[in-house]
Amino acid sequence: MDLRGVNKVFDVPGRPPYVAIEDFNLHLAEGEFVCLLGPSGCGKTTVMNMLAGFIEPSSGSILLDGEAVCRPGPDRGVIFQSHDALFPWLTAQENVEFGLKMRGIPAKVRSETAQRFLALVGLANEGRKFIRELSGGMQQRVQIARVLANEPRILLMDEPFAALDAQTRRVLQDQLVDIWQRTQTTICFITHDIGEAVFLADRVATMRAGPASGIKEVVEIDMPRPRERISDQASVYHRRIEDVISAEVQAALA
């Protein structure tokens, strides 16, 4: 997937247009895990919404296999921070089956597929429970299973673990890496957490402070997997990225 010279301008009644994203360029290789990281308000979610096809760029191009992305599609799955995307009146398995049902997949195939992906995220025995009966971490895993069941080419994740406690977040980070390595799905993951980005990503794309944000620096995380969260290598990458982000925050406040 490629973003080439992408700009996004929002019209604001009674004010000059707001330039959120300017000359944004990024390539996502097939099977790659990329984290998008930057100061608050730099436009990370705007970029994610354009990748998902929820909004169109004002100019520039977003291409998937050479085809323009201009609307949502089954080739891109989106996982949000909030659990509100799940249907509380359905069971976990019924939530995972929902997208398959909308595509006309036969009931037997839907059930087998949902069970397979619930097992993949560690919820093999929770399929009959309603969403309200599951913890926040379990609900996020149901979201991941539901998206993966539709076999997207790219998984777009907008701070999916930010609202969870630290221990649950670490467990889900480990599970996400395991799922990614098994499925080889391309992942674009938004986070504010530098440690999370260093642990998860093949590359960390840092963004300039907004407005008119774009790519500041792309850092390749050359660390073997499985990774340790606390190591000399991880500390070096953490400091490097922290210096980039801190400089952007200071520039925004100047």
Automatic annotation (TrEMBL):
Database matches in SMART domains: AAA
Keyword Aminoacyl-tRNA synthetase: no
GO terms for MF: ATP binding; ATP hydrolysis activity
Protein name: ABC transporter ATP-binding protein
Domain ABC transporter, residue spans: 1-234
PROSITE patterns in alphabetical order: ABC_TRANSPORTER_1, ABC_TRANSPORTER_2
Keywords of this entry: ATP-binding, Nucleotide-binding, Transport
